[in-house]
Amino acid sequence: MAYLSAARKGATIFGGLYAAAILAVMIPYIQTQCVQVYLLNNTRPHPTLVLWYALHDLFPLNQLVLVLQFLHALKIPLFSDYNTPEKYGLAPNKTANLKISTADGELLGAWFILADQFYHSLPSHSAPPVEHVGAALKARPTVLFFHGNAGTRAFGARIQHYTTFSSRLSANVLAIDYRGYGDSTGTPSEVGLARDARAAWNWLIDNGALASDILIVGHSLGTGVSSLLSAELSDEEIAPKGVVLLSPFSSISKVVETYSMLGIFPLLRPLASIPRATEFLMKRLIHKFDTDKLVPRMKGQIIIAHAGECGSRHPGTGSQDRPTENDWDIPYTHSEALFTAFLDPHLPQMIALPPHLASLSQEQWSEFTSRAAERREAREALVSTTEIPKFGTLHKFNDGKRTVTHVQTLHGGHDYVGIQEGVSDIIGQTFGFF
């Protein structure tokens, strides 16, 4: 007991110092003073610190937080030539480079990629692809794709998504760079990205697409954007073909809480011993992207896909074994949480326990365990689970109005779960591409 007490005390002290350090470096004055001391005591200071000090007054902390959350300054590939998508592997005259205007005056860079089936039906490929947009939208469904943070629409992993959608699904693809990304104007924000998504949607409709022919697909940060657009459209009783969330998060705050550097070192774990320290930091997040809170507003068919090496525990079954992590950026538990959020309204609601379990009566405990058993049985009856050898596990339920599907793959990591043929086939079968 003495050892545990000492360990607890040590963890508390360490957590306190860690929290104090985090809070301290959030204060511009302390940042400046620390760097000044370093520069004065080092005849050959690191060039990065010298540059940081020189730019500090021009780059306030709130701007630093913005950059770290969206990583829009990482314009990878560098010096991208958006007018020449062929440079990044797309077929000649298959992709139109566009500019899309938003409601608040920003100009978004975008690519419209013709579906393979339509592209190969053309008598020649000499005409600019922009001339075929209207006909392509009428001929084949379209994937409206929202990418993750960092990089641009020319990033290699994103190109692979476009080619997968245009070939495997034979769908047109509209891919945008949000404000502040690529060659788009403006500065990113949660509200701004939602406006960008609606501008892209409106562009498709204005050019002749039917809402029922547009599949909204988001990856990583793009799942938050996709969910915002889906909720907005549902509020207006507009029904797209459906929504696909690839490597999604339940909320940005939960990502920060669960993030581990290199998949090993939990970023905020040292703060756990300090009451309300993590909560305090979470409240400082400006752009929250609370996808889990949007679930009640999202209508229509939904697919959630995430990489996590499958164990015997699956959403909706109540089994306790844990899968192995395959996504080092966003844990698969975020997808489980979202699937459960869609499922929850169709299950018996749990009884709230009192704040102090010591005051729990035998009658309350019996009622709680009984309700938990009812809920588990209801989940098992509603959710179908299919093991697909060497690929992963498929969970789905139908509430009478729509099907919600959770695909948990063995492979794919964070960036490539969506380009797996198995995932594409599930998308194609669910949304009628085949």
Record field, number of beta strands: 13
The percentage of residues in β strands lies in 15-25%
Helix content range:
40-55%
Count of distinct structural domains: 2
> Whole-number average pLDDT?
83
CATH topology of the largest domain: Rossmann fold
The coarse silhouette is globular
Radius of gyration: 24 Å
* CATH architecture label of the largest domain: 3-Layer(aba) Sandwich
The major beta sheet can be summarized as: 11 strands, mixed
Unreliable residue runs: 22-40, 48-59, 312-321
Number of helices: 15
Structural class: alpha/beta
Instruction: Determine the CATH superfamily of the largest domain.
Output: Alpha/Beta hydrolase fold, catalytic domain
Succession of helices and strands: HHHHEEHHEHEHEHEHEEHHEEHHEEEH
What is the CATH top level name of the largest domain?
Alpha Beta
Distance between the termini: 64 Å
What labels describe this entry?
alpha/beta, 2 domains
Commentary on this structure:
- The chain contains 15 helices and 13 strands.
- With 434 residues, it is an alpha/beta fold.
- The protein folds into two domains: 2-70, no CATH class; 85-431, Alpha/Beta hydrolase fold, catalytic domain (Rossmann fold, 3-Layer(aba) Sandwich), CATH 3.40.50.
- The strands form two sheets. Strands 1, 2, 3, 4, 5, 6, 9, 10, 11, 12 and 13 form an eleven-stranded mixed β-sheet that branches.
- Helix 8 crosses helix 9.
- The longest helix is centred in the first third of the chain and has 24 residues, at 2-25.
- The protein is globular and about 80 Å long.
- It starts with a helix and ends with a helix.
- The model is unreliable at 22-40, 48-59 and 312-321 (pLDDT under 50).
- This is AB hydrolase-1 domain-containing protein.
- Residues 143-289 form the AB hydrolase-1 domain.
- One of its GO terms (biological process) is phosphatidylserine catabolic process.
